[in-house]
Amino acid sequence: xxxxxxxxxxxxxxxxxxxxxxxxxxxxxxxxxxxxxxxxxxxxxxxxxxxxxxxxxxxxxxxxxxxxxxxxxxxxxxxxxxxxxxxxxxxxxxxxxxxxxxxxxxxxxxxxxxxxxxxxxxxxxxxxx
Length: 129
Known about the structure:
Layout: E1 2-6, E2 9-13, H1 19-32, H2 45-52, H3 56-68, E3 72-75, E4 79-82, H4 86-110, H5 115-124
Antiparallel strand pairs: 1-2, 3-4
Helix pairs in contact: 1-3, 1-4, 2-3
């Protein structure tokens, strides 16, 4: 897995997984973690594609999905920016947290661990900040 810094964004690219999904998810997570602030300009499609050494159409597809989710705003002649709508950012953060919680529950079920035991395990795990 290759780690690439592009402006305020840190991308980890795994060539064994769909690139468009990785770019999309990593930008979503950066927004949810507040690694990038609302109103921050995204790198241009061409710039990001060159830095990540991927096809510009892949980046364009990820940017279009971000736009559809209202996480970005495209300003003609200026570029693409992270939305200034804090409610949208909160909704995305909640959705990502729900996905993570569902993945955890699914993993626990596959291991045959019941809810009380899973909750106990969560309480035992140290949160490193």
